[in-house]
Amino acid sequence: MKKLLCVALVVVMMLSLVACSKKLSGTYEAEFDIKVMKYTASYTFSGNKVEIVKKTTVFGVVDSVTFEGTYEITENDDGTMEITINLETEDDHIKSGTYTFEEGEDYIKIGPSKLYLKG
């Protein structure tokens, strides 16, 4: 009985650590200028879900594409953080993957990209 109780306690502790993973909420936005193309990426976080809206402007024509998926933020042994984003669809600029992550008072950094909190 003691072994069973000990195993149950370990399982509960592990689940509580998973439940305490970092979550974001709100919309963060950045503007990118790539050669002849300019686009704005807005990342909206809610729970473990992320919606990314990419608005592209090419020669004055605006196009909007929405990407949906999930994300998870983890802390490495050295204290650095990473965000893993899993999207249902991707394009050349908006991709699934694991990136370095940093959070400031009014911004987040995903890889080299700094996105600012809207509103």
Helix count from the secondary structure assignment: 1
Low-confidence residue ranges = 15-19
Structural class: alpha+beta
Helix content: 10-25%
Return the string of H and E elements.
HEEEEEEEE
Radius of gyration: 18 Å
Sheet with most strands: 8 strands, antiparallel, barrel
For the terminal residues, how far apart are their CA atoms? 55 Å
Q: Averaged pLDDT, please?
A: 86
Q: Per the principal axes of the C-alpha atoms, what is the gross shape?
A: globular
Tell me the fraction of residues in β-strands, as a range: over 45%
Compute the number of strand runs: 8
Q: How does the SSE layout of this entry go?
A:
Blueprint: H1 2-19, E1 26-34, E2 37-46, E3 49-58, E4 61-75, E5 81-87, E6 97-103, E7 107-110, E8 113-117
Structural commentary:
The chain has 119 residues and is of the alpha+beta class. It is 15% helix and 56% strand. The chain has one helix spanning 2-19; strands at 26-34, 37-46, 49-58, 61-75, 81-87, 97-103, 107-110, 113-117. Strands 1-2-3-4-5-6-7-8 form an eight-stranded antiparallel beta barrel. A hairpin with a 2-residue loop joins strand 2 and strand 3 (49-58). It starts with a helix and ends with a strand.
